[in-house]
Amino acid sequence: MGWLILVLVIFIVAFIVTIKTDDYRYEGIQIASGFIAFSSVIGIFIIACFLLDTKSDEKATLLKYENLKTISNDLGVSSETTLEEIISMNKKICDYKIYANRFMTKGLYSKKVGELQLLEVPEIMKVSPIDYE
User: Fold this and answer.
1) Helix axes 27-69, 80-99, angle to 10 degrees
2) Hey, is 46 helix, strand or coil?
3) How many angstroms separate the CA atoms of 131 and 49, rounded?
4) Contact 58, 112 (CB under 8 A)
5) pTM value > 0.90
6) What's the number of CA atoms in the CB half-sphere (13 Å) around residue 132?
7) Mean pLDDT, the chain, whole residue set
8) Is the Cβ–Cβ distance between 72 and 89 less than 8 Å?
9) Which residues, 6+ apart, have CB-to-CB distance to 2 below 8 Å?
10) Burial 9-22 (b: 16+ CB within 10 A, else e)
11) For the chain: N or C, fewer Cβ within 10 A?
12) What span, in angstroms and rounded, lies between the C-alpha atoms of 113 and 126?
């Protein structure tokens, strides 16, 4: 959300500078501020697309979380791929916990995913320490 506000402020400032520099003496400033305003509009559009994509990513992540929880706890299926997916999901949950509460990235990360409990590695997949003696 913070990025959207920042880019919006840049757009407003650049747009005002573009309008205020109508005189021919400020042609370079007018061209530069017009370019910045145009770039800001593109940035606003891109950030808005990311904000809209957050909801679908949230649903997919929650569904994958429930599937991994079922596979690891209930079925007891052990494989290298399942272990990698559990580690990947735990990393994603940790990232969401961090970024969902920051002002600049608040709307880009879901709080629901950040509030999930970390998945535990099933006992079957845990490796015991190596005894060298």
Assistant:
1) 130
2) helix
3) 53
4) yes
5) no
6) 0
7) 81
8) no
9) 102, 103, 104, 105, 106
10) ebbeebbebbeebe
11) C
12) 25
Share of the chain above pLDDT 70, in %: 85
Residues in CB range of 62: below 8 A, 6 or more apart:
112, 113, 116
Q: How far apart are CA 123 and CA 78, in angstroms?
A: 9
| Joined tokens for residue 62 | 């929650």
* Dist. CA 112–CA 93, nearest whole Å: 10
Residue 127 phi, psi dihedral angles, 5° rounding: -100, 130
Q: How far apart are CA 57 and CA 41, in angstroms?
A: 24
Query: Pick from 117, 102, 3, 107: which is nearest to 58 by CA?
Result: 107
pLDDT, tens only, 58-112: 888 899 999 888 887 766 656 777 788 888 999 988 888 888 888 877 777 888 8
Residue listed under structure tokens 């190596």: 130
- Residue whose token pair is 């535990």: 120
